[in-house]
Amino acid sequence: MIEIEVEAEAWTAALPAVETVVGAAAKAALGAIEGDIVVLLTDDAAVRDLNARFRGKDKPTNVLSFPAPESAAPHLGDIVLAYGVCAAEAQAQGKALADHLSHLVVHGVLHLLGRDHEDDVEAEEMEAEEREILAQIGVADPYAADPSVDWQDA
Q1: Among 77, 93, 127, 138, which residue has the fewest nearby CB atoms (within 10 Å)?
Q2: What is the pTM of this model?
Q3: pLDDT at residue 145, as a whole number
Q4: DSSP characters over 55-123
Q5: Bind-site residues for Zn(2+)
Q6: Are the CB atoms for 4 and 41 separated by under 8 Å?
Q7: CATH code (residue 53)
Q8: pLDDT for 37-56, tens place per residue?
Q9: Which positions make up the binding site?
Q10: What average pLDDT does the segment 74-103 reach?
Q11: What is the mean pLDDT of residues 9-24?
């Protein structure tokens, strides 16, 4: 089950089909994996607070992933996205908000599934998996448009 909570109205104002976009991306990233996830669409202030509390970084970021402990199965974890950061990134990169959001949701789900990008090899593997998943839902390669995307802070 994919539960989508829209806490910041800016998401639906900018992208009326936001829940459909998030659901399709999350479903594609999960593939055949069984499990529940929660996706919270919120604002920069809420993400900044979470980022400060859980990562020691007092600033908003685009997406945060919180994997659930194995004992919480079938819950895989939670993903939180900040509207302002995501919208600004999409605009700066010349991407549709729906496509950028799809990418960030896929990225977040992959983190819940244990993927990471701590070194160059992991980053290349994760990016390849993201490209493959996004292609399945009709989203262009997010790295082709902006190869400077740096996930080390996400």
Answers
A1: 138
A2: 0.90
A3: 55
A4: HS--S--SEEEEEPPGGGTTEEEEEEEEHHHHHHHHHHHT--HHHHHHHHHHHHHHHHTT---SSHHHH
A5: 107, 111, 117
A6: yes
A7: 3.40.390.30
A8: 999 999 999 999 999 999 99
A9: 107, 111, 117
A10: 95
A11: 97
